[in-house]
Amino acid sequence: xxxxxxxxxxxxxxxxxxxxxxxxxxxxxxxxxxxxxxxxxxxxxxxxxxxxxxxxxxxxxxxxxxxxxxxxxxxxxxxxxxxxxxxxxxxxxxxxxxxxxxxxxxxxxxxxxxxxxxxxxxxxxxxxxxxxxxxxxxxxxxxxxxxxxxxxxxxxxxxxxxxxxxxxxxxxxxxxxxxxxxxxxxxxxxxxxxxxxxxxxxxxxxxxxxxxxxxxxxxxxxxxxxxxxxxxxxxxxxxxxxxxxxxxxxxxxxxxxxxxxxxxxxxxxxxxxxxxxxxxxxxxxxxxxxxxxxxx
Length: 296
Known about the structure:
By secondary structure, the chain is of the alpha/beta class. It is built from twelve helices and eight strands. The chain has helices at about 25-35, 55-70, 85-100, 115-130, 140, 150-155, 170-180, 195-200, 215-225, 230-245, 255-260, 280-290; strands spanning about 5-10, 40-45, 75-80, 100-105, 135, 160-165, 185-190, 205. Strand 1 (about 5-10), helix 1 (about 25-35) and strand 2 form a beta-alpha-beta unit.
C-alpha cells in the first residue's frame, strides 16, 4: 500500500528521570515541541527510544500516554519489532489495541534469518493486525539486510505500507525504489541521506535529528516536495554537522545530550549505554549554537 504517511516523523527518545524511571512530564513537552514545529508523525519505541532496556509494562504505559497526549493531532507509529516473530506479533497486536496509527517493525536481529525468513516475519506481523506496517532495514544494527528483491515481495502484502531504509547504500536503495515504486513507500532512515532518498521518490523522513531540529527537518522535506533542490541542499548542508554530531557515539547517546542542550529533559541513556563523552559534548554544543537553535 502507498500513501500511509508523507512528511517527517521523529524517532522519539524516551526521557528518563534521575531515578531511571520514564519522565512522562518531559515526554509531554517533547511531544508538544514536535507538533508545534510541524512534525507529521511520532515514532515511539523505535531504536532511538531504547526499548531493549524497557519492561513490557513501561512500554505499554508509554504507548497509552502518547495516545492520550497526542489526541489525534498527528499520526503515531509504535515500534514492535523483535528477533522472535511470536513476540513481534504480540507486540503489534498490543500496539493496535492501544491506538497506534501504524507500526514499525525492525528486521529480526542477532539470531538473524534468511531472506525467506524476512518475508515470513513481516507476513506474520501484517496478518495479525489491520494497521499499516513499515519495515525497518538497518543492517549495521541487526546484521540482516532486506535486499531489493525481498522488498519487492513485501510490497505484495496488503497492509505493508513501506520500508524505512537505513542500509546506507544508495545504489541498493535506488534498486529497492525501482522495484516497489507505486506499490509501497520508501522512507529515509538515515538523516545524512534525506535529500537523495527524497530525490528518488522517498515519501518522507523518519529522523533522529528531528528530536533536536524538527522545524528544519520538516523544511528540508517541504523544499524537496516543492522541487526546490537548491534550498533543500542549502539547508541540509547546514544540518549535516548536527547530523554527524548525533552519531559520534551510538544512537541515542548524542541526541539525548543534544535535547538537554536545547532545554528538553532527556536524562541519561539506560545501561549499557553511557553518558556522552566530553569531547563529543563540545561538538554537539558548537553545532547547536551554529544552527541558532533556541531553548525550548
